[in-house]
Write a structure and sequence with these properties.
about 300 residues, mainly alpha, Serine Threonine Protein Phosphatase 5, Tetratricopeptide repeat, globular
Length: about 300
């Protein structure tokens, strides 16, 4: 019988609930949760390989709540923390941000908190995070090693997304950007191929997010996106979606916008089986974004003297 995320949502919490409801000591509960890592790894693999977007989307809220409960039982479980960060980040971006920015902002903040809690098991990093000193912070990032790259990537990504949705209401959050820049630099040093070249896509979005007259760097953004495409062999469609949504829109290139989104939509479903879910979800987002092309590329009305 095939293993699906919904089955895991029902079965795994049941095992934990049986332990807790029978009055077992918290230590035993923690041991039980910590021992579930192989199941959680299989759940993640099954979810990522499942192209049924509706099934995964409907299962994800329960999965997020399940992870919250497990983290309460085992608050320093580093695998749980980074997995919960990744799940909250993905759910916010794929299914919430376009409909409810406030809720997405909360999910990004939660993802960042979980990822930073993972990294803060490193005492040097934890102390630097509490200080308002960028040099100390950048130096502390050097103590984050390749084994911690998943947590660092999720923290960087979710922090950047949170700033993106927050700065309109609270410009003070922009003061966090130098820290995020330092984190991206460390990701480049550790392994720029991690997560299909994800750090290059992040840097591409960051470089193009502002108009050129206000510090945007389109040439750098183009180079970063091309690097992400090369590393991923153009099989991870999320990078192309970000290229259309940010680079093509900011450079006012309607043809590039339309061509890129159509290329995403027409890509074979089995191009990257290990990321079938994300690619399928991105295809749906690409179709929605393409329908809004006139909204993004309205003709600008000339100024009246």
């Amino acid at each position: 019988m095939a293993f699906h995320p919904k089955m895991a949502v029902l079965v795994v919490p049941l095992a934990a609930a049986m332990l807790l409801s029978t009055g077992c000591a918290s230590t035993i509960a923690k041991i039980s949760v910590d021992g579930m890592k192989p199941i959680m790894v299989d759940m993640r693999t099954a979810t990522n390989r499942n192209p049924d977007v509706a099934m995964v989307r409907d299962a994800m809220p329960a999965m997020l709540i399940q992870m919250d409960g497990f983290i309460r039982v085992s608050p320093e479980n580093r695998y749980l923390l980074v997995s919960a960060a990744e799940a909250n980040l993905a759910y916010a971006f794929l299914f919430v941000e376009d409909k409810d920015r406030r809720r997405a902002r909360e999910l990004y903040a939660k993802a960042r908190e979980y990822a930073l809690r993972n990294l803060k098991t490193n005492k040097t990093f934890r102390q630097a995070l509490e200080q308002d000193d960028l040099q100390v912070y950048a130096k502390a990032l050097k103590t984050i090693h390749k084994r911690d790259i998943a947590a660092l990537y999720m923290a960087t990504n979710s922090w950047l997304q949170w700033i993106n949705l927050s700065h309109g209401d609270n410009p003070d959050v922009l003061k966090d950007l130098p820290r995020v820049e330092a984190m991206m630099d460390r990701l480049l040093e550790l392994d720029d191929t991690f997560y299909y070249g994800g750090v290059h896509a992040l840097m591409g979005v960051y470089a193009i997010s502002r108009p050129e007259m206000f510090g945007g760097r389109p040439d750098e953004a183009q180079a970063q996106f091309q690097e992400a495409f090369e590393i991923s062999e153009s099989k991870f469609l999320l990078w192309h979606f970000l290229y259309a949504k940010y680079y093509a829109v900011q450079t006012r290139d309607r043809e590039l916008f339309v061509t890129t989104l159509n290329r995403i939509i027409e890509t074979p479903d089995d191009i990257l089986p290990d990321q079938a879910f994300v690619n399928a979800a991105v295809k749906l987002k690409a179709k929605d974004l393409l329908q809004r092309v006139d909204e993004y590329f309205r003709e600008r009305t000339p100024a009246v003297n």
